[in-house]
Amino acid sequence: MRLGFDAWGLGGDSLYTGMGRYAATLLENLPVFAPEIQVHAYGGPDEARPLWLHDSVTWRPAARSVHRKLSALDSRLRELPRLADEDRLDLFHAPAVHVRPSLPPVPQLRCPVVATVHDVLPLTFYRTDLPLRLRAFYRWNLRRAVRASSVVTVSEQSRDDIARLTGTDRERIAVIPNGVDFTPNVDSAVLRRMRINPPYLLFAGSYEPRKNLAATLDAYREVVRAGKPHQLVAIVERQSGHAAAIHERIRELGLENRVRLLHSVAESDLRAVYTQAEMVLFTSLAEGFGLPPVQAAACGVPVVASDLPVLREILGTNGEFVDPRDPSGMAAAVMRLSDDEPRRRELGAAGPAVARRFSVEECVRGHVALYARAAEALARHAVATA
Q: Disulfide-capable partner of 240 in 163, 207, 225, 270 (CB 3.0 to 4.6 Å)?
């Protein structure tokens, strides 16, 4: 099978997003678990081949477009159909449904297309907070995704939301949870290099308001005022239009010397930052999956998580669940868990079993089976119409 895969941006900061990790996990591991599949990865304009990409994967950067902001649309609507024919693709995987037209839309090709819809948060959470042009683009892109040959998502909660909001038959939507390969790293030299001082709380998210860093900072101020010595380490992105508001909030709360913001952290270092945290805070307002709680579980670190159906789906009973809109309640949960070492040990010990439910091999093999079904359906249709 010749598989095309949209790898736009995976040589840069997109790699550090949840959607980016999902796509990279598949690209890294398809050659390992399904070497019979010939993978063609299609990048952005003049995008360099990612160093982590397996040698067997063919790399195809897009041509440079006259209109830089429209290069993704131009590439995937005009250039990609030609490249797919030239490369004789049997199947193409679009691993995300983007909300911004500066990122690639789900293509329509001669070969079957598999589309991954991670969530429908632009419809269930952002709603009219999104500018009209982004809402219009997202609805157009989502329609293309649910009309693809196969649709896949990452949680039962997301499947329910997609079916309800698009009218797609729930049985048409395959659920294949993210695969997580994240092992502990106890190297304390990493912390010294990053100026992280134990004990510390780790916030795993971004500057984006949905990730709820502002309310987490409010909760953390209460923890500090209670006399706790913990530093707050927050994983964020390199650039964001929301960064200035968070920096100002840190100053308003007088937390400049207590909060450490990190971005673009190499995976080995990231594992060290997770492993040596007293607990991980995942206080998002809405999610389609949630990689950080699984990464924390893999490292045997307890999680304080938002009380969302999808996070209970992922963690089961192995977390301290809080109302993410209640900073005082979040602070109380953090301090209660900090003072309860037996409970922390209990949650930490249960973590690896939680993480094993999200194995990379099962994730990859699930996608390979989906690819095979999509290709077989096309073959049956061709025979029936011959």
A: 207
Backbone angle region of 38, left / alpha / beta, with phi > 0 → left and psi within -120 to 50 → alpha? beta
Q: Is 120 helix (H, G, I), strand (E, B) or coil?
A: coil
The CATH number of 188-356 is 3.40.50.2000
Give the Cα separation of 264 and 270 in Å (integer): 9
Q: Pick from 277, 351, 271: which is nearest to 314 by CA?
A: 351
For residue range 26-83, what is the model confidence (pLDDT) as tens digits? 999 999 999 999 999 999 998 999 999 999 999 999 988 767 778 999 999 999 999 9
**According to CATH, what is the number of the domain 2-179+359-385?**
3.40.50.2000
- By three-state DSSP, how is residue 5 classified? strand
What Å distances lie between residue 200 and 225, 231, 234, CA to CA? 15, 4, 10
pTM, rounded to two decimals: 0.93
What residues have CB less than 8 Å from 122, skipping those under 6 apart? 99, 130, 134, 135, 138
